Amino acid sequence: MQNIVLIGMPGSGKSTLGRVLAEKLNYHFIDTDNVIMNTYHHNLMELIEQHGNNGFIELEGKVLCSLHTRKTVISTGGSAVYNERAMQYLKQSSIIVYLYHPLPELTQRVGNLVTRGVVCHGGCTTLAELFAERCPLYERYADLTVNLSRCSVRACNQKLLQAVQNYLQKQDGE
Questions:
Q1: Is the dihedral of CA 43, 48, 50, 55 positive or negative?
Q2: pTM of the predicted model, to two decimals?
Q3: Which CA distances in Å does 154 have to 9, 16, 68, 122, 148?
Q4: What is the pLDDT of residues 24-80, one digit of tens each?
C-alpha cells in the first residue's frame, strides 16, 4: 500500500484533515513538523532562526528522506516542496495530494507567517508572495489536487476522502 503525502499552504488543513483521512482509511499518520521538532529538539521557528531558511529546508529534507513507512498519511510542512530530493523520494512510495485553498481563504485562516515558523525560499514577506512562490511547486509535485474552497472542516474531510478513494480505485483498475 502506498503512502499518501499531503502538501499545501500553511492553514490548508494538512494536519487536521490528515489525521481524519488516516483514521478513515485505516492508515498510520505522521506529521513531519512534529518529527522535525522531536528530532532536533526545537520548535520550527527556533530551527529557522538557528539554521536560516536554506538550512531548515535541508533539515526538513533529511527528515523526509528518513521516513520508511507504508500505508501512512504523511502531513508535510508547507516548505517540503523546496527540497527536490525529498519530494522525489516521497513520490517513489506515495501519492502526493495537494490541498488547494484560494488565497483569500488562506488569508483568513493563517496568522503571522513569522511566528508560525514559515519558510519562504525567495524571501517573501506576505502570504500573497508565499502563495505565488509555492503554488507552482505544489502543482508540479501533486499527483492529485483537491480544491477545498469554501467547505467546512467536515465537508473538506469528506471531499478529501472521496478524492483519495477515487484516485486509489482508478490506480487499482489500471
A1: positive
A2: 0.91
A3: 19, 11, 30, 34, 11
A4: 999 999 999 899 889 989 988 888 888 888 888 898 999 999 999 999 999 998 789
What are the residues whose beta carbons fall under 8 Å from the beta carbon of 5, sequence distance 6 or more?
73, 74, 76, 90, 94, 95, 96, 97
Contacts of 103 (CB under 8 A, 6+ apart): 127, 128, 131
**Residue 149 in contact with residue 124, Cβ under 8 Å?**
no
Tell me, rounded to whole angstroms, the distance of Cα 49 from its chain centroid.
21
SS (H, E, C) the chain: CCEEEEECCCCCCHHHHHHHHHHHHCCEEEEHHHHHHHHHCCCHHHHHHHHHHHHHHHHHHHHHHCCCCCCEEEECCHHHHHCHHHHHHHHHHEEEEEEECCHHHHHHHCCCHHHHCCCCCCCCCCHHHHHHHHHHHHHHHCCEEEECCCCCHHHHHHHHHHHHHHHHHHHHHC
- Cβ–Cβ under 8 Å, residues 63 and 32: yes
